[in-house]
Amino acid sequence: MEKVHFTEDQSTNLATLYGRALDSELPDPFLGDPTAREAISKIDYDFGKFKMGTDEALSVAMRAKPFDDWTREFLAANPEATVLHLGAGMDSRVFRIDPAPTVRWFDVDFPDVIALRERIYPSRPGYQTIASSVTDPAWLDEIPADRPTLVVAEGLLMYLDPADGEALLRRLVDRFPRGEMVFDVMSKLAIKLQKLNPVVRRAGATLRWGVEDPHELEKLGLDLRTAWDVSHFAEPELVSHFSAKYRLQFKVATRIPAFRNFAHLLRYRY
């Protein structure tokens, strides 16, 4: 069993790993990630402290699935692409996607997180890890800029200082000639009310960067393709997976603009 000693912000990646593992154990999983279930069996950590029930686990899986779908779409169109998975944490996305060996895939995160990944997950063709803070400009020098590049940053940007987040996005746009970025953002109200988020509260993490309008980020050289707010996840085929309590919460949230725009899942072209 691998012991972990993560910071509070880093601990959120264990919470989401646990959520995906719980989802995989459901009779009808939303995401289905057996690798996550295997991973938590190898980690010596009190996952019970997250007090995560079925609804919370489904929420984690529901957020992850669009990123997986967009990644598959990009790789179908660009079979020799580069994928940068920023703030990868313990996410087993590379195993869910199972890209061809022609794809260059980089998981980037802090050295202690990458060290745990390398002890828990097997190596695979075309896959590399980079042990660095994503906000350190130096790690980008390791990445060739000769292919279409997909940047995936699920559950990352809201933990960065706004100046650091904008600088990171600018560097990525400047470094790679063409590609896509997929990431999620939270509104400024969501940042203010962050202690209502059970995953953030129980991990003791801190959210810092709120984005009110996804078009704000077009000033960084990004072209918005898709912007999903909370109402997307209230679609009947999605919300039917949840308990009556959660379905009611989604219904209320979609009718109040401030709550409907609490979070966005975004897909940009550059």
TrEMBL record:
It comes from Amycolatopsis xylanica. GO terms for biological process: methylation. PANTHER family: S-ADENOSYL-L-METHIONINE-DEPENDENT METHYLTRANSFERASE YKTD-RELATED, S-ADENOSYL-L-METHIONINE-DEPENDENT METHYLTRANSFERASES SUPERFAMILY PROTEIN. The keyword Transferase applies. GO terms for molecular function: methyltransferase activity. The lineage of its organism: Bacteria, Bacillati, Actinomycetota, Actinomycetes, Pseudonocardiales. Pfam families: LCM (PF04072). This is O-Methyltransferase involved in polyketide biosynthesis. Keywords: Methyltransferase, Transferase.
